[in-house]
Amino acid sequence: MRATDDSPPLRYGNTARILHWVSAIMILSTIPIGAIMLREGLERSTQDLLFILHKNGGVIIFALVLARLVWRLISPPPPLPATLPDWQHPAAKLGHLGLYGMLLVMSVSGYVRVRAGGFPVEMLDAIGAPTLVPHSEALADFAQSVHAYGRFVLVALIIVHVGAAVAHMVRRDGVMRRIWPPVGG
Ligand code: HEM
Ligand code: HEM
User: Fold this and answer.
1) How many separate helices (H) and strands (E) can be counted in the chain?
2) DSSP states of 43-54 as a string?
3) CA of 17 to the centre of ligand 2 (A)
4) φ and ψ of 158, to 5 deg
5) Residue 89: which residues within 8 A CB-CB, separation 6 or more?
6) CATH number corresponding to 14-178
7) Nearest bound ligand to the CA of residue 88
8) Do 119 and 107 contact (CB within 8 A), yes or no?
9) What pLDDT, in 10s, does the model give residues 110-148?
10) Considering the entire predicted model, what is its pTM?
């Protein structure tokens, strides 16, 4: 059927789609870098490089999440296809809320773990950003635990999210077309 001026938009706008895919690439590289950089036996120079990539990548992810949330208020997502079963509407909302929430938990706990431990975040130091938490080993240890356990929750949510996306692709029910391609289409 041809879309008319009255039809609801079928896709997220270009900005939301670009932000989704840039964030996805950043997150899907930051997680393995975080796991690899803690392996024993790594050369010091390699480990330092991975730490720098991970910490600063995490700060960029935080900025991307904020940008997405603000943009979502300015340009709300299009309604889901009416053909989807009712239960999928709240399930999608809950899943997306969980992903945004866990991305914030991971970036904030990573930041607190590093800053409270007295370590640099190169990108923020370069622009002269002040340290927002006190130096405290207890706080750094707590944030480290949150970061370490939080990754399981985030990875589980990502697996469910990508699994759901693949199921929609197989059914060709129009959901994947809402976010793909990253621009135009
Ligand atoms: C959404 C963003 C982030 C994700 C998904 C993420 C994910 C991870 C993962 C999977 C690990 C490995 C944990 C382990 O094996 O125990 C890790 C470790 C770590 N991350 Fe992140 N991280 C994020 C943001 C950050 C940020 C912003 C910083 C600091 C500015 C940071 C600093 C660290 C540090 C220092 C470790 C090593 C923790 C330790 O000492 O055991 N992360 N992160
Ligand atoms: C780290 C990886 C990813 C994260 C954190 C993520 C997160 C999100 C979030 C938060 C939304 C909701 C956007 C909003 O309404 O504000 C979304 C939408 C979507 N994502 Fe992802 N995503 C990731 C990877 C992927 C991948 C790899 C696929 C496909 C294979 C995918 C497919 C979709 C689809 C189809 C939608 C639209 C859902 C709808 O219309 O309700 N995502 N994603």
Assistant:
1) 5, 0
2) -HHHHHHHHHHH
3) 9
4) -65, -40
5) 80
6) 1.20.950.20
7) 2
8) no
9) 999 999 999 999 999 999 999 999 999 999 999 999 999
10) 0.95
Cβ atoms of 58 and 109 closer than 8 Å: no
Cβ neighbors of 84 (< 8 A, separation 6 or more) are: 173, 175
CB atoms near residue 12 (< 10 Å)? 20
pLDDT of residue 2: 42
Residue type, 16: A
Residue that is written with structure tokens 């007295």 in the block: 118
Tokens 């720098």: give the residue. Answer: 52
The one-letter amino acid at 39: R
Please give the Cα distance from 153 to 137 (Å, whole number): 25
Which pLDDT band, with edges at 50, 70 and 90, does 10 fall under? confident
Atom of ligand 1 nearest to the CA of 117: 35
Angle between helices 137-171 and 88-116 (to 10 degrees): 150
Neighbours of 119 (CB within 10 A): 11
Ligand 1 site-directed mutation target among 28, 100, 141, 147, most atoms within 8 Å of CB: 147
Query: 103: Cβ below 6 Å to ligand 1?
Result: yes
pLDDT tens for 45-89 read 999 999 999 999 999 999 999 999 999 999 999 999 999 999 999
Give me 166's structure tokens.
């693949």
